[in-house]
Amino acid sequence: MHVDGNAAAGLLTQVFARDMTGAHGTCGSCGHNGPLAEAVVYGEAAGTVFRCPTCDNVLMTLVEAPGRILARLAGLRWLAVPI
Amino acid sequence: MAPAALLQRLTWLPAVIAEARAETPQARTLVLDVPGWPGHRAGQHVDVRLTAGDGYQAVRSYSLASAPGEQPAITVARVADGEVSPYLVDVARPGDRVEIRGPVGGYFVWEPAMPYRPVLLVGGGSGVVPLRSILRHHRQSADPTPMRLVYSVRAPELVIYREELQAEHLVYTRTTPPGWPRPAGHIDQGLLREVAWPPVDSPLAYVCGPTAFVEHLSGALLDLGYRAGDIRTERYG
Amino acid sequence: MPLLMGTVSRGFSGTHFRRPGPELADRVPPGQYLAAGFPVLTAGTTQHIETGLWSFTIRGGRAEPRWTWDDLLALPAERFTVDIHCVTRWTKLDTTWTGVPLDTLLAEADHDAAFGLAVSYGGYATNLPVAEITGGKAWLVYLYDDEPITPEHGGPVRMLVPGHYLWKSAKWIRELWLMDEDRPGFWEQSGYHNFGDPWRQQRYFND
């Protein structure tokens, strides 16, 4: 079952030390651009998986380990963070 | 958001349940005492962490139901076969402790000064929780922005915040109250044309509910002529 | 299930998970809780593959054998009971599966590869040395508790390698790639351990 990026706001804030739900990401596969809040998120997994709402490409994974969060952003071409 | 808040480290805050209020047979509002609570914006949420005596922990994300300036409160609906929601709805009582991380989220948020554009709130089931925070904030801040809620709910006994939402548009999907003018059914194009602000007014829409509900409603609003960028969505599974 | 101890919430006990008693120390690896049910974890959409469309191919050997659903069911099967361990800290004891040992299938591939990458419908992948999926240590299974495996749990056919954390047991298995060099899979590229031995708590990449 999936939710969306809003549900991962706490985890994203842990990683980026600011709100990231309004940050826009560009999919490295299809080029779709949209806020992380609108990403398809699978939270009931070994980590939190963010997928592109258009093409299902994995944009980002966040794995919570003791004392650290392992972030892989390999599926994002761009991340535009509002300041 | 103040620059200082950006750099604030997000940590788990101990919280005490100050008040528990049954909303329906399935949902309960918990008001929380959180020392050091920094305040929140309408539409934000918190992560709630429970720890069992044997060290086992479970974390869930819940929308804040209260308006900014009020004590943080969450409204939790019991999920069949759930682990955290049955505890929060049936077991926890005032004085019990949980841990809170937040407030978090900045996308599904409404602020009075923002746009001078009419706002349409569309909630399905407990998706109405963050919308209630927005609606309450709107009323308390006496903001002139036109705001309207369409709330889709299965049956009359499942309506949460009943008193507060009387004046809004309720849509019953399975059972209606006796004499209700609309037969039970989902929000459709006809209803939206009646109650949604017309696209010519450049409205903003906030849609929250189960994934299928949000997909259906955002599609219907696009068909009505709403711009994709003006529809904010939040899905809870 | 994070590790840090927090404030205990009165009356909260994991209804779905509990700490095992000391009598189970040789059954339950360190840091694991016992699951009451069978939790479903997925990194993407649940795949619904009709048995008539399902097939399994081993690539990278001198032969590239392929089996349809009927081919797989025609092979000698084993019914076995094992404990399974998920890296998210739950363990399920005495799960009974039916399927074909991977040894049977690999024998058709005529290969001397050292590494395997299991590839699933939907794009998931996970890697293990060939030595870890041969010698009676891995199966392609199609029955759980004598019933067809549901799509949520990886049916119609999933891999099962109970000696490793469960993310190594690919759901909706479609192919096995044989390679001379190791190639990390989905979670192995995302911070999880490359080998994933539950008894050595090899959870994250440098554990």
TrEMBL record, chain A:
InterPro entries linked: DUF6510
Pfam families per the UniProt record, alphabetical: DUF6510 (PF20120)
The name this protein goes by in its record: Putative RNA-binding Zn-ribbon protein involved in translation (DUF1610 family)
Automatic annotation (TrEMBL), chain B:
Keywords: 2Fe-2S, Iron, Iron-sulfur, Metal-binding
Annotated Pfam families: FAD_binding_6 (PF00970), NAD_binding_1 (PF00175)
PROSITE patterns documented for this protein: FAD_FR
Keyword Iron in annotation: yes
GO molecular function: 2 iron, 2 sulfur cluster binding; oxidoreductase activity
CDD domains from the UniProt entry: FNR_iron_sulfur_binding_3 (cd06217)
Key word Transmembrane present: no
Domain FAD-binding FR-type intervals: 10-110
Top-rank lineage group of the source organism: Bacteria
Requisite cofactors: FAD
Protein name stated in the entry: Ferredoxin-NADP reductase
The organism's taxonomic lineage, starting at the top: Bacteria, Bacillati, Actinomycetota, Actinomycetes, Streptosporangiales
Automatic annotation (TrEMBL), chain C:
Domain Oxidoreductase molybdopterin-binding: 46-187
Domain of life of the native organism: Bacteria
Transmembrane segments: none
Alphabetized SUPFAM superfamilies for the sequence: Oxidoreductase molybdopterin-binding domain (SSF56524)
A Pfam family the protein falls into: Oxidored_molyb
Identification of the protein by name: DMSO/TMAO reductase YedYZ molybdopterin-dependent catalytic subunit
Species, as recorded: Nonomuraea soli
Taxonomic placement: Bacteria, Bacillati, Actinomycetota, Actinomycetes, Streptosporangiales
